[in-house]
């Protein structure tokens, strides 16, 4: 190798050390932080160890692996049906597939291919028009407000609907929920229009404290419910669709047609059972502590114009924080604080609104329980010193 080539190679290596890949830098900062409001990522070795540890007590590990949905997968389906108080449940590799199948099945049964849902709902935002592209379904929007639709808005729709889909909580609007009275009223409005009701309950597990109701009481309002295993329970992947036994049997047939009849799914099923066993009982504590964290953030950010915690009192253990800085500046300040002070307060930032006004989502989980209100205020002060 020539001296010139070696010189350029040394410069490139030096530059990589000075300015590493942003994802690598963030991962290192998060791993090295002494205190983080953000859950720390695991490498593959740690993930394997966590799966083995969590599986103990969640299922009989002397049993054979599943084959095309029996064994541990069937046990998971029975457990979900029991927790939700529904007659049956089906495991799906993804929530997208579960909801596409659910809405397709209901359209076939009602004879109406129109689904009433929020424009910020997951099928409208993240599924590449799968409703229309795969099933020929069409969405209508009772409201464009950043909240769930009201009973009056559903009643005022000017065309027939086969299914009313409600995302609980509505993530893109700030993980917001209606009141119990509002929820029961909008469900009744859908039924008055002869529509079936489907809950996108990816995060339904943590909604009980807001409503003051149990999971079966919530699920009883709907004809079908989808739940996720990785969004709140810490599972690897996967989802379940619960509802009447004949509906679930039909959903399993469509699951096969959609390519969801996997040969073995025991890692995902085991991690889901572990999450139901360990994380589900903790969610109420996360929801309660989210209120403490949100109040401390609101207090610390009060002097900063255009800052906001939304909702001010979180409905679940997740909420939004909006700050009047560019996402790039916030990202750099967060990493610098983690590297220099060993404190990581926030994760990613985006600018979904006006330029220069950025948003992040806060999830209060196990690591966040260690934070007092004073810890939060001091961390915000340290972050703002790097920004203002």
Automatic annotation (TrEMBL):
<dbReference type="GO" id="GO:0016829">
    <property type="term" value="F:lyase activity"/>
</dbReference>
<feature type="domain" description="Aromatic amino acid beta-eliminating lyase/threonine aldolase">
    <location>
        <begin position="72"/>
        <end position="300"/>
    </location>
</feature>
<comment type="similarity">
    <text>Belongs to the threonine aldolase family.</text>
</comment>
<dbReference type="InterPro" id="IPR015422">
    <property type="entry name" value="PyrdxlP-dep_Trfase_small"/>
</dbReference>
<keyword id="KW-0456">Lyase</keyword>
<protein>
    <submittedName>
        <fullName>Beta-eliminating lyase-related protein</fullName>
    </submittedName>
</protein>
<keyword id="KW-0663">Pyridoxal phosphate</keyword>
<dbReference type="InterPro" id="IPR015424">
    <property type="entry name" value="PyrdxlP-dep_Trfase"/>
</dbReference>
<dbReference type="InterPro" id="IPR001597">
    <property type="entry name" value="ArAA_b-elim_lyase/Thr_aldolase"/>
</dbReference>
<dbReference type="InterPro" id="IPR015421">
    <property type="entry name" value="PyrdxlP-dep_Trfase_major"/>
</dbReference>
<dbReference type="Pfam" id="PF01212">
    <property type="entry name" value="Beta_elim_lyase"/>
</dbReference>
<feature type="region of interest" description="Disordered">
    <location>
        <begin position="1"/>
        <end position="21"/>
    </location>
</feature>
């Amino acid at each position: 190798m020539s001296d010139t080539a070696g010189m350029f190679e040394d410069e490139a290596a030096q530059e990589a050390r000075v300015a590493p890949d942003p994802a690598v830098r963030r991962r290192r900062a998060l791993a090295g932080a002494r205190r983080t409001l953000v859950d720390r990522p695991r490498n593959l070795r740690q993930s394997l160890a966590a799966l083995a540890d969590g599986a103990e007590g969640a299922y009989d590990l002397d049993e054979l692996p599943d084959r095309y949905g029996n064994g541990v997968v069937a046990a998971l389906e029975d457990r979900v049906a029991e927790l939700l108080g529904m007659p049956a449940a089906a495991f799906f590799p993804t929530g997208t597939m579960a909801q596409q199948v659910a809405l397709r099945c209901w359209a076939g049964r009602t004879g109406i291919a129109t689904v009433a849902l929020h424009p910020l709902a997951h099928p409208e935002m993240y599924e590449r028009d799968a409703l229309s592209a795969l099933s020929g379904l069409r969405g209508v929007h009772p409201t464009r407000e950043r909240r769930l639709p009201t009973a009056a808005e559903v009643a005022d729709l000017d065309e027939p609907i086969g299914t009313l889909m409600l995302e609980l909580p509505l993530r893109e609007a700030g993980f917001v929920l209606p009141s119990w009275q509002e929820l029961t009223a909008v469900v009744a409005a859908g039924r008055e229009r002869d529509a079936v009701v489907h809950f996108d309950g990816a995060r339904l597990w943590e909604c009980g404290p807001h409503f003051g109701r149990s999971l079966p009481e919530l699920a009883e309002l709907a004809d079908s419910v989808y739940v996720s295993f990785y969004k709140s329970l810490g599972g690897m992947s996967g989802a379940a669709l619960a509802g009447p036994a004949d509906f679930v049997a039909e959903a399993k047939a469509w699951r096969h047609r959609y390519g969801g009849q996997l040969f073995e799914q025991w890692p995902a099923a085991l991690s889901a059972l572990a999450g139901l066993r360990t994380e589900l009982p903790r969610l109420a504590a996360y929801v309660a502590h989210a209120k403490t964290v949100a109040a401390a953030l609101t207090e610390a950010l009060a002097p900063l114009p255009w800052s906001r915690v939304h909702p001010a009192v979180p409905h679940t253990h997740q909420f939004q924080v909006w700050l009047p800085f560019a996402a790039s500046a916030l990202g750099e300040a967060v990493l610098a604080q983690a590297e220099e002070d060993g404190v990581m307060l926030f994760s990613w930032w985006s600018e979904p609104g006006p330029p220069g006004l950025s948003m992040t989502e806060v999830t209060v989980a196990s690591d966040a329980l260690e934070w007092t209100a004073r810890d939060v205020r001091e961390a915000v002060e340290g972050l703002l010193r790097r920004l203002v």
